[in-house]
Amino acid sequence: MRASRQIKLAEAGQLAAMSDGLALIMDNQRFVSPHVLPVLCDLREEIAAELGRRNADGGAGALPDPHPGLVRADRERT
Q: How many domains is the chain built from?
């Protein structure tokens, strides 16, 4: 998948922007074609996996939590 290569090359700020954009789209999914939703979910998983790999590598490229103390359904409290 071409997006996977782009995600691996993305900087932390770019990953944050992609993650925020996908969250906004998923929050308004009633306006999105049902044929597109699986692709968006795959992208969200790819971004989360890349962030997880970067966090496992000692925090290189890790994103700071923009809203500390808030708990979202797709993120555990740290």
A: 1
> Are the beta carbons of 27 and 12 closer than 8 angstroms?
no
Please report which confidence band the pLDDT of residue 8 belongs to, taking 50, 70 and 90 as the band edges: confident
| DSSP for residue 6 | H
The Cα 13–Cα 62 span in angstroms is 10
C-beta of residue 71 within 8 angstroms of C-beta of residue 77: yes
pTM over 0.90: no
18, part of any domain? yes
Q: How does DSSP assign 33-64, residue by residue? A: -TTTHHHHHHHHHHHHHHHHHHHHTTSTTPPP
Residue 66 lies in a domain: no
| Structural domain boundaries, residue 40 | 2-56
Q: Does a structural domain hold residue 63?
A: no
Pair of tokens at residue 60: 């290189």
